[in-house]
Amino acid sequence: VQLQASGGGLVQPGGSLRLSCAASGGIFSINGMGWYRQAPGTQRELVARISRGGTANHADSVKGRFTISRDNAKNTVYLQMNSLKPEDTAVYYCSQDRVYWGQGTQVTVSS
């Protein structure tokens, strides 16, 4: 299984970004997917996850601002990030059942 994350970048506080993670080499629709992030000097933390059936859970720190979704026809999971804050700055990783990991995409929130 290969996961390719994209969509990161530099954005001002209050801005939005949408991350995408395209999966290949497996049966995407039967697996849970998640987004994690890691800031310098910190442990990797769960941001949001979505079950194969579409049930989503979000970390308290991002509830109401971030939304995880998936498109099984496109083997892709998304993370819509709104009202971004400087503390959201991190490398964001997608994962399939915490077994397979993408390469990470940098999100920087700064004015």
Based on the model shown, name its key terms.
mainly beta; 111 residues; 7-stranded mixed beta sheet; 4-stranded antiparallel beta sheet
Which ranges are low-confidence, i.e. pLDDT below 50, for 5 or more consecutive residues? none
User: Termini separation (Å)?
Assistant: 37 Å
Number of distinct beta strands: 11
- Helix proportion range: under 10%
Q: Main sheet?
A: 7 strands, mixed
Structural class: mainly beta
- Overall pLDDT confidence: 95
Percentage of residues in DSSP E strands: over 45%
Radius of gyration: 13 Å
Oligomeric state: single chain
Element-level helix/strand string: EEEEEEEEEEE
Shape assignment:
globular
What's the total helix number? 0
Structure report:
Helices cover 0% and strands 51% of the residues. The chain is globular, with a radius of gyration of 13 Å. The chain is mainly β and 111 residues long. The model has no long low-confidence stretch (mean pLDDT 95). The chain has no helices and eleven strands. Strands 2, 4, 5, 6, 9, 10 and 11 form a seven-stranded mixed beta sheet that branches. It has strands spanning 2-6, 9-11, 17-24, 33-38, 45-50, 56-58, 66-71, 76-81, 90-96, 100-101, 105-109.
